[in-house]
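Hello again, I could really use a second opinion on something today. I've been staring at a protein lately and its backbone has me curious. You're getting the sequence in one-letter code plus the fold written as tokens. I'd be grateful if you could look everything over and explain what you see. No rush at all, and the record is pasted right below:
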Amino acid sequence: MPRLLLLIPSTSYRTADFLNAAERLGADVVVASNERQTLEQVVPGKSLTLDFIDLNGSTEKAVAFARQYPIDAVVSTDEEATVLAAMISEALSLAHNPVTATAAAKDKQRLREILTSASVPTPSFQVFSTDEPAEEIARRILYPCVIKPTFLSASRGVIRADDPNTFQTAFHRLLQLLKEPEVRRLGGPAAKKVLVEQFIQGEEVALEGLLQDGRLSLLALFDKPDPLNGPFFEETLYITPSRLPATVQREVADAAQRATAALGLREGPIHAELRINNQGAFIIEVAARSIGGLCSRTLRFGVGLTLEEIILRNALGLQIESLERQKKAAGVMMIPIPKAGILNNYGGIDDARKIPGIEAVTITLRRKQKVIPLPEGRRYLGFIFARGERPEEVEAALREAHRKLTFDILPPPS
């Protein structure tokens, strides 16, 4: 029986989906998390506590563990541990992406530098120290622009500015986020840097792919029907298959292939975000991991394989009969957060589930939990899933289901 080491952050949405996939494959699983698990001492060989920030120390710990419990593949379920997964895989001589490539994909500054050097379309950019006065930076940049951290994901800390005044407001707001202890520890020296890049007009899409020996297979291309023009960039709808012309879809896939090649990524899942306008397809992000949240539940391949099964099969070197996505249109809504506060209650779930085409409505925040919108937040209220014959039907079902939901959010404590 093959043994998988799954690196799963304590905040991950993906735990159940990856564990279910491993069970269907008959693989033995070791769960490595950044928080100690209660069964670690009771059931040895099944779990491991690793510090996802202490890369060298955690690699040594994982290698020592593997001497007693041999590992056949290492997979990170989320962005936080992609570099650590590559380092452990390298130390154990397992199939993996180069560590430098994985780290570059995670570092927005390095990503921009590499893509620019390789002539892959990407926003022009500058990097500034958080110690520089905002008013001085505001006079030296072009507008509209986007200001963001170099190391956070899921649009956290990402703000558009259209003039010097809005830039200074955005800069100071981002500084407050970068000073939070959890963010400061996660970023290290990068928490003292701010990336300012050109705002790219156009439609935005998300690409899900699988790299095998450097060759990119397109698994799904998602349209994002809601415009993402700022000032914050809260993602809502993902719909597949894309309604873009076939020529544009090929251009998007080609840009993603060129980006992964420039970075040096060679194995495993990738998730890319691109903007498309009359100048072409611009790479906004490339991550050496699969789609976040619960969004992978929209995807089925071949005779019914989940995205997680595809990823684990590839990591273990098992046969994958088909990478072709099932034909039916599918989509997900990441339920927008209307305001900050405390989630007191919610309703309308049963009515939303009755909408034709709706497969599931899942609320992921618990009652009495804090609700924190972007750009500071990183958690969704929940997810709505739909399937249909055409993308238009799926989009309409998701919007109608969302209109049925109600959320009672109390003001935050003063």
Notes: Residues 3-103 form a domain with the Rossmann fold fold (CATH 3.40.50.20). DSSP finds twelve helices and 19 strands in the chain. The mean pLDDT is 96. The first helix runs from residue 15 to 25.
